[in-house]
# Entry
Amino acid sequence: MAGRALLLGLVALVGASPASTQTLSLAGPVSELAADGGRVAILVRTKTGNCARDRVAVWAPATRSFVPIGASACVGSTSTGAGLFSVGLAGTRVAYVQFAGGNTRELQLRLATLASPRAATVASASFGVDVGQGTYIGRVAGDGSLLAFDWWSECGPCAQATPVAPRASIFRLVSSGGAACPNAGLGALPRCRPVISLAGSLRLLAVGGGLVVTGAGDEVAVRALDGAPVYTGTFAGLRAARIDARVLLVLTRAGTQSSLWTVDLSLGLRSGPWILPSSKSAADDVCAEPSGCRPAALRLADYQAGIAVYVVGHGVHLLRLSDKRDVTIAAPGLGPVHVQLEQSGLFYSYRPAPSPTRGRVAFMPMAAVLARFR
# Structure
């Protein structure tokens, strides 16, 4: 409760009216955003004295509500660090991965609701940092009533002894009637229903419209919640994917060139490429790696109503695929910039130049976003 009160005391809201761009001022920089409907879940790092810690909160600009959800231990409290990553929002449910440990990194998938914001551990995993052996939780993704995460096992040393095939699963979280979630001895609840489980490599890329998008190498697959295949395709240099209204959006990379492709899932029709600006690297805007990752120069963030959203430097790019119109909104501050686009509007984060240790999240209503294309 003290942590929740502290975060509330470090938040300020600036905005003339619900129709204008609103800005949320935070006590630290933002490392992730996950929006659904008119709300956005924010992963922010704050510092008090010598203790820096990650926190998750949910902001709804329309009602100006701000709900703290959970916090990590101080990031330096364990030998290999502690913190949070991969936040997902689905309606009023929010989930994120909490980690801590030394040579063994312990992962807990934490789940809360806006009505009951005290998070509980619903799944866990544990792996050796130096040996690459154990179980892992990576991406958490939400949309509407669907909240999903991926889990997998690895055994690097086994390849030189008795080969053991890695196993991977995609689970969705349910409010009741679920089976046991993965448990590494750190806690779990019967809130999981498997979408797919197989031997081999498999990662969750996105969810949307009751569908789950997975990636394995250069192969993208879209599945229904019961695991039934909807689409499978190969995209050389696969980097990221998003889905909206039964249209799959895929980011690829060939040499120094990044491109976008779409697949109409109703027709099975592939379109593209849409060529993106040159950059040194390209990847997903969300780091879903338990060991962390370096942000790419170009990052795919979202896809909504035919508009692909990606980030290059401090610029939020809105690419309308129908006419290839690319509109840039420059964040009025420092990076890293993160962004989400929903039917309600555009959320994006940055650090104010005069106070680079703080953070901002701006919300631009959809009417204002569409006006940029005129």
Q: What stands out?
A: The chain has a mean pLDDT of 92. The radius of gyration is 20 Å. The CA atoms of residues 199 and 272 lie 32 Å apart. The first helix runs from residue 2 to 9.
